[in-house]
Amino acid sequence: CTSCWRRMPEAAAMELARLETAAAEILATASDRDSALREIAQLLEASVPHYDWVGFYLADGRELVLGPFVGEPTEHVRIAFGRGICGQVAESGETKVVADVTAEANYLSCSSAVQSEVVVPIHAGGEFVAQLDIDSHARDPFAPDEVEFLQRLCARLARLWSET
Ligand code: SME
């Protein structure tokens, strides 16, 4: 993976620090939850070369509903809990990093170009409310620091649910 941050850890650390600040600014200024999520998705997709689709799914009972996203439109606008990588995360409440989607039996394909995926849950008031989903055309691109950054980001995004 030529564009992946694994190959340039110092540059990646600097970029993650910049993204943390930029995301905090979006959270402080966005007018509502949808705009905040859209702006965060745009920020991530525009900043990280190996992010090819970035979006949010919101919990609606035992289903996930597609929210703001950046990238190709997907047929998966509603996903039952348990189905695909997204549905597994909705059920487990735990981050799932899939380095190679062809090795994942319970997977819903959006595009044949996608090779890897990371899904990070968002909990508010102890409940699963949404998730961040990122698809990549690179194989195994997600570094541990990067996944931790995404988890910190999602922990911060929780406040978008408690303020409404
Ligand atoms: N690949 C996901 C479906 C959502 S798309 O990536 C946007 C899954 O297996 O749940």
Structural class by secondary-structure content: alpha+beta
Runs with pLDDT <50, length 5+? none
**CA gyration radius, whole angstroms:** 15 Å
The residue-averaged pLDDT reads 95
| Helical stretch tally | 5
Estimate what percentage of residues fall within beta strands: 25-35%
Tell me which ligands are bound.
Answer: methionine sulfoxide
User: What is the tally of beta strands?
Assistant: 6
* Helix percent band: 25-40%
Q: First CA to last CA: what distance?
A: 41 Å
Largest sheet: 6 strands, antiparallel
The SSE order reads: HHEEEHEEEHH
| Oligomeric description of these chains | single chain
* Molecular shape: globular
Strand order of the largest sheet: 3-2-1-6-5-4
Brief sketch in words of this structure:
With 164 residues, this protein is an alpha+beta fold. It has a 6-stranded antiparallel β-sheet, with helices on both faces.
